[in-house]
C-alpha cells in the first residue's frame, strides 16, 4: 500500500461535535451495559470513519488482557491464533496495545506509525495481509494511566486509505466512551440467580480444544460479555487471550485477568501450564508428555473488587491515595501527616473523590465500597456474591 500525503486534521469543532454527540447518547436515560456502550460508540465512530472490518474489545486495566467485546464484524477465525501470539504472547509491534497504552494520544494508524513501511510489520504480514486488509486504525479507551478498551478498524486495498483527518476524528470518541464504560462497570447488573462461590476449572490443549470443563466453569464462561459469530468458535476471545499469554509465561507462573459478567459478577481468570496427568519427567527437564493450560474461573476477591471500583471512579493517583486512607479510617490530620500534604489539600481531594463516587461523606463512601466489595462475604441471603442486591422476583 503506497502511503498518501497526510491530509489536514479536522476542524476542532468537528471533533468536539462528535465527542459531544456521543457523550449525550451515552448519558441518555437508563444505564447502559458494557456491550451497549461499545455498540453505541461503534455506531458513532463508524459513521464518521467507515471500516471494512472492525471490533471492540474490553480490557482488564491491570493486565491489558481481553475481557469481552464485540467481534461480529472482526477478523476471520483463521488469523486469530497468530494475532493473540503477536499481541499478548510476543507483545510485538509498534502499535501493540501495551505500546499504545503508554502513549499520550488515543488514536494510531499502523502505516503512519511505521512511516509508510507497513510491509516491515510482522502484524501486517501475518494478520492483515493474509485476509486482504491494507491498514489498521486503533482507538484506545483510556483515562489517565488506565486503559479500559480498544477499537480496531481495518480497510482493504480497494477502499480509500485512512487519512490523518480520520485518525484525528476517531480519537474524539475515546473520552466519552471511556467514561461510559467505566460507569457501566460500576452500575450495571442485578443478579437474579444464586451463583456458587466455588471456582470452575477448564483444561485446554495447544489447539484450543477443551479437554475438561466443570459445570461451574461453563456457567461462568457463558456470562462473559462478548458478542461474536458462533461458527468455529469454542472459547471466548477473552479466554483465548489468557491461554496464549500463559503459553509464553515463565514455567511455574500464572497469568490473570478480571472480567465482569452479564449479571454484574466480577470473575478472576487465572491460567497456568502443567504437564498432563500421568506423564513422566524426561531428561533435561522434559515433561515426557503433553503440556496443557489450566484455567481457574472464580469470583473476584474483595481486595480485587476494591481496586477495580477505585479505578472505575476515575480517581487520580493522589485521590486514590486519599480514598484508601478513608477506607482505613484515618482522620484528616492523620492523612495530612501520612501523605505530607496540608489539611485543606486533603479536604479538597476528598470533595473530588466524593463527587466522582456520587456520595457526600466519608461514611457514604466507605459504605458504598463495603456494600459493593465486602458484604458479599457475609452470610446475608438478600445479597449476591459480589455485593449487588439480589432480585428474587422473576417479574421484578
UniProtKB/TrEMBL annotation:
Gene3D superfamilies: 3.30.450.40, Winged helix-like DNA-binding domain superfamily/Winged helix DNA-binding domain. Transmembrane segments: none annotated. It comes from the Bacteria. One of its GO terms (molecular function) is DNA binding. It holds the Pfam family GerE. Residues 312-369 form the HTH luxR-type domain. GO terms for biological process: regulation of DNA-templated transcription. Keywords: DNA-binding, Transcription, Transcription regulation. This is Helix-turn-helix transcriptional regulator. It comes from Streptomyces qinzhouensis.
